[in-house]
From TrEMBL:
Protein name: CDAN1-interacting nuclease 1
GO cellular component, as recorded: cytoplasm; nucleus
Protein's organism: Cyclotella cryptica
Major site of localization recorded for this protein: cytoplasm
Keywords annotated in UniProt: Cytoplasm, Nucleus
Length: 365
């Protein structure tokens, strides 16, 4: 199912200073919640409520705050996860001594689903491929076993042979080690995965599907504007490496402000008089890349810009669409003007022939 673009506010465009202040406040809110190990990190319901409140407070769409928060958390994880993993033995021992996975995750401020995976990797035993072949009918790698154990914990631990025979205790004080071995780990993995608001198999699938949805939406919009192009799939089929989502069959003109045009958060093409060249000029683009996320400064600088600069070197200048919004353009690198940034597909393009292509279908010269 194709999702609709994030609805933008109808208010007048704010000054660059106001946009920067709002962005800084939202980013600071994310960092504070993350570093403090807020309860929203361990409950989907609390997470949803907190993001909704922040959306209202900062005047940003729910999807924008949600994506900005996750981007900030990914950055936090990159900086801190090595320290947690160095304490793996201690965390596993805490679990074996009776602490629940979710409580261990809260104590060390680590995503519940990731803590579940860490525990499973060190408690579940599938080192014997013969055992797995005899009991499951297939020979699977350790990585595949762990992944399936996280996705379907109830199915993966039906056999005691798959668990390391360690002495463990649960928080209820059960003495039935047989029961604990076969049920406790699977139940706590399920609890951890279900409580995680950002990570785990469900969220991975959802992000993947949303990304595809927006790519398809972009293709449909270009088709409706009668703009010819090749998709990433078509480019790869003929052996092209490092491909954008859309390679235009001919360069297109995109209207931008002549001076300090990137000091404005959004350029509403519907308000532009294409005949008036005093304030705007046309920039050429050769490709479009779709990003179903919020374009914060860190993600744009460290991940997106290096990726799309390879497209610039290969195909020429292009356009990045952050469907969930982006930081003020004055904060985002543009590869010397070769990378334009928008939060949606522009309303009007110009073909090399001088013809206009519009979303409303009123194409003219």
């Amino acid at each position: 199912m194709i999702t609709s673009p994030v609805k933008k506010s109808s208010r007048h465009v704010e000054s660059d200073d106001a946009q920067c202040d709002a962005y800084d406040q939202a980013e600071l809110w994310c960092r504070e919640r993350i570093s403090s190990g807020h309860d929203m990190l361990f409950s989907r319901q609390i997470f949803h409520n907190e993001i909704k409140t922040a959306s209202n407070n900062f005047g940003l769409p729910f999807e924008a705050i949600h994506s900005l928060f996750r981007n900030a958390h990914v950055s936090y994880m990159k900086r801190t996860s090595h320290m947690l993993k160095s304490q793996t033995t201690r965390h596993v021992q805490s679990y074996l001594n009776g602490a629940s996975i979710i409580n261990i995750a809260k104590k060390v401020n680590y995503p519940p689903s990731m803590m579940a995976r860490l525990i499973v990797e060190n408690v579940a035993n599938n080192s014997s491929s013969n055992e797995l072949e005899n009991t499951m009918g297939v020979n699977v790698s350790n990585r595949k076993f762990i992944t399936e154990a996280i996705r379907h914990p109830e199915k993966s631990w039906e056999m005691q042979a798959l668990l390391k025979g360690r002495s463990v205790h649960n928080e209820k004080g059960d003495n039935d080690l047989q029961y604990i071995l076969l049920s406790r780990l699977s139940l706590e993995v399920r609890e951890a995965v279900d409580s995680d608001p950002m990570y785990g198999p469900h969220h991975d699938r959802m992000r993947h599907n949303i990304g595809i949805d927006y790519e398809l939406l972009l293709e449909q919009m270009l088709h409706s504007m009668q703009i010819p192009f090749e998709t990433e799939e078509e480019l790869r089929a003929r052996g092209t490496a490092r491909t954008p989502d859309i390679l235009l069959s001919c360069p297109l003109g995109l209207q931008v402000r002549k001076t300090n045009y990137h000091q404005i958060a959004e350029l509403h093409e519907s308000d532009i008089d294409v005949e008036n060249s005093d304030e705007y000029e046309w920039k050429m683009i050769c490709w479009i890349d779709s990003k179903a996320l919020y374009g914060d400064v860190g993600t744009h600088t460290s991940s997106v810009l290096p990726q799309v600069e390879s497209y610039v070197h290969r195909f020429g200048p292009g356009l990045v669409i952050y469907w969930f919004g982006h930081a003020p353009l004055s904060r985002l690198g543009d590869s010397h003007g070769d990378v334009l940034i928008r939060d949606g597909l522009p309303d009007v393009f110009m073909l090399p022939t001088g013809e206009f292509r519009r979303k409303n279908g009123q194409n003219n010269t």
